[in-house]
């Protein structure tokens, strides 16, 4: 269980870092491009994100957090269980849930426009704002989850 907590904490931190990069400079850089170039670049990102390294980390962390959330409920009386539950739920709801409910639909809408079309240019400006705002949410959730899971991991290590 200790190893799973560590894996989940590191996974949350790694995903937070990826999303932090988008929030702090990637989206700003894309916004400086002409809409057709920005759209084409983001469409390429959305294709290449489906790779074993990113998806394995993103979904593997989700699986670990699901297991840890259930485990925390079964061992609620143990020290650190609340940190484990809240950290796991933050990742599952605030990172994975936000991604599925908000970022992916925005990505899907952008995927079907032609980069050099008037519809594409119109969509691009709202996309930049909306996608980035939801990315801030999932970044903060993943970072907070990493912190709480690290605290939960410390409780178990201290008891060992």
Keywords:
single chain, 160 residues
Structural class: mainly alpha
Question: Which residue ranges are poorly predicted, with pLDDT under 50 across at least 5 consecutive positions?
Answer: none
Question: Major sheet, described briefly?
Answer: none
Count of DSSP-assigned helices? 5
Oligomer: single chain
Q: Could you report the average pLDDT, rounded to the nearest whole number? A: 96
The backbone outline, from C-alpha atoms, is: elongated
Total domain units: 1
Order of helices and strands: HHHHH
Description:
The chain is an all-alpha fold and 160 residues long. It has one domain (2-159). It is built from five helices and no strands. The longest helix has 42 residues, at 118-159. The radius of gyration is 18 Å and the shape is elongated. The relative contact order is 0.20. The model has no long low-confidence stretch (mean pLDDT 96).
